[in-house]
């Protein structure tokens, strides 16, 4: 079995993993980033075609390299993917693509990552696999829908041409559900169901946003944190119910004729979706904007709570010294899950890794 040792193994080459690498690099610490995608940035390129960031380029750069676009340009998903790839190249980061960690074990004072016929031993591990994980969350009763109904999770949706002609039901009314329903309603009858998740009352591209968006970002970074009561309340809402509406507003959906239903889809009757108020919907397509499951069963350590989230604070897992997370939703603040907030979290994790290394903790006994 092939084996190598690194001081810090970072799992995931998205914005969280790359930024953690940057902060370790500037402190002179060695690390290796591994990622299951073919190219850095593919996790962004695989989103739906019209996805754009909700923050302008002036706020989207990672530490050390501004985003290469005009200040008030809102980058598309491919631009973000290309920027992440260029970020890794710019700093000559050690990244191995097409490399997926199948299991992570503790051994001695360090950890062992299993990658097929190879193992990597390390003193520290940073799990940077995404804010909500990449396992689509779809209800079990989805399998009871008529096979003629096209079903796609939001992670599979790219463009309207994937769907059958006729009505579409979008399940889940967080910002992805709003955006996709708005796009589909241009050319087909569209129903959006699920409770509203609130609304940020500015339009990102408006002139008004030039004044208000800096205030919103300040609140997201410094007010809605795990140290404040309102931040802890919002953390529960966002982690388990989705974020507020951003670009697409209720009036936009109304103008396109979207049928907005606050009821939840709770089952299937005769192969058709049924809501919790008993309404049965006759549709040809269903888009599941129901989020993702956190699946960390590959981490062979008792670090998860009853909801499946790691027990951590600011990415530090006290129960497993040397194990860190970066890029989690509300790792410290509302901004933790977006580009304007990732740098602070990654810097904190890197500082804790450096402090552990300075204390002389190594996995030499592995």
List its traits:
globular, alpha/beta, 26% helix, FAD/NAD(P)-binding domain
Question: How would you describe the overall organization of this protein?
Answer:
With 366 residues, the protein is an alpha/beta fold. The protein folds into 2 domains: 2-133 and 294-358, 3-Layer(bba) Sandwich (FAD/NAD(P)-binding domain); 137-199 and 244-288, FAD/NAD(P)-binding domain (3-Layer(bba) Sandwich), CATH 3.50.50.60. It has 8 helices and 16 strands. Strands 1, 2, 3, 4, 5, 6 and 16 form a 7-stranded mixed β-sheet that branches. A hairpin with a 2-residue loop joins strand 4 (103-107) and strand 5 (110-115). Helix 1 (15-26) packs across helix 8. It is globular and about 65 Å long. The chain starts with a strand and ends in an 8-residue tail after the last helix. The model has no long low-confidence stretch (mean pLDDT 93).
Q: How many distinct folded domains? A: 2
Counting helices, strands and paired strands, the structural category is alpha/beta
Helix amount: 25-40%
Series of secondary-structure elements, N-terminal to C-terminal: EHEHHEEEEEEEHEHHHEEEEEEH
CATH architect. name of the largest domain: 3-Layer(bba) Sandwich
Main β sheet profile: 7 strands, mixed
End-to-end gap:
15 Å
Q: Which parts are unreliable, with pLDDT below 50 for 5 consecutive residues or more?
A: none
Q: Strand portion, in percent?
A: 15-25%
* CATH topology (level 3) name of the largest domain: FAD/NAD(P)-binding domain
Instruction: Tell how many strands the DSSP assignment holds.
Output: 16
Helix count equals 8
CATH class category of the largest domain: Alpha Beta
Query: Going by CATH, what is the homologous superfamily of the largest domain?
Result: FAD/NAD(P)-binding domain
Computed CA radius of gyration, to the nearest angstrom: 21 Å
Mean pLDDT across all amino acids = 93
Globular, elongated, flat, extended or rod-shaped: what is the shape?
A: globular
């Amino acid at each position: 079995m092939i084996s190598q040792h690194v001081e810090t193994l970072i799992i995931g080459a998205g914005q969280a993993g790359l930024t953690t690498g940057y902060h370790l690099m500037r402190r002179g610490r060695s690390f290796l980033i591994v990622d299951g995608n073919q190219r850095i940035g593919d996790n962004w390129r695989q989103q739906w075609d019209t996805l754009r960031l909700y923050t302008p380029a002036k706020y989207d750069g990672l530490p050390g390299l501004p985003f290469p676009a005009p200040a008030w340009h809102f980058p598309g998903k491919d631009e973000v993917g290309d920027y992440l790839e260029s970020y890794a190249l710019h700093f000559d980061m050690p990244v191995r693509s097409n490399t997926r960690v199948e299991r992570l074990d503790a051994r001695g004072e360090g950890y062992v990552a299993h990658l097929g016929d190879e193992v990597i031993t390390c003193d520290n591990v940073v799990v940077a696999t995404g804010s909500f994980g990449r396992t689509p969350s779809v209800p079990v009763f989805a399998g009871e829908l008529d096979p003629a109904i096209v079903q796609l999770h939001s992670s599979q949706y790219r463009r309207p041409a994937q769907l059958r002609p006729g009505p579409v039901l979008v399940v889940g009314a967080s910002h992805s559900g709003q955006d996709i329903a708005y796009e589909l309603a241009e050319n087909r009858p569209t129903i959006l169901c699920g409770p509203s998740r609130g609304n940020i009352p500015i339009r990102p591209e408006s002139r008004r946003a030039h004044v208000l968006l800096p205030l919103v970002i300040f609140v997201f970074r410094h007010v809605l944190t795990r140290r404040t009561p309102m931040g802890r309340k919002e953390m529960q809402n966002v982690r388990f119910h989705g974020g507020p509406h951003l670009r697409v507003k209720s009036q936009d959906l109304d103008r396109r004729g979207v049928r907005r239903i606050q009821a939840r889809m709770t089952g299937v009757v005769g192969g058709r979706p049924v809501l919790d108020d008993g309404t049965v919907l006759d549709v040809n397509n269903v888009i599941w904007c129901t989020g993702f499951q956190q699946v960390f069963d590959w981490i062979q350590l008792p670090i998860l709570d009853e909801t499946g989230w790691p027990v951590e604070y600011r990415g530090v897992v006290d129960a497993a010294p040397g194990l860190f997370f970066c890029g989690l939703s509300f790792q410290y603040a509302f901004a933790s899950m977006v580009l304007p907030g990732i740098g602070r979290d990654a810097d904190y994790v890197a500082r804790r890794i450096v402090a552990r290394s300075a204390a002389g903790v190594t996995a030499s006994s592995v």
